[in-house]
Sequence to fold (62 residues):
Amino acid sequence: MKATELKELTVEQLEAKLKEMKSELFNLRFQHAINQLENPHRITEVKRDIARVMTILQEKKA
Fold:
């Protein structure tokens, strides 16, 4: 997800998105551990998206 798209969301929406992404990351790590993950690069993408959301949340709260 792009940072410009995230900046348009409200704080509540960002927090919900963050929770959803953390859940997805957990599931991806679980699949990776049992060798069922088809695209391991997806873990990196989700981590970066989480970082983007957290950064924008900090900007909005400041």
Notes: Residues 11-33 form the longest helix (23 residues).
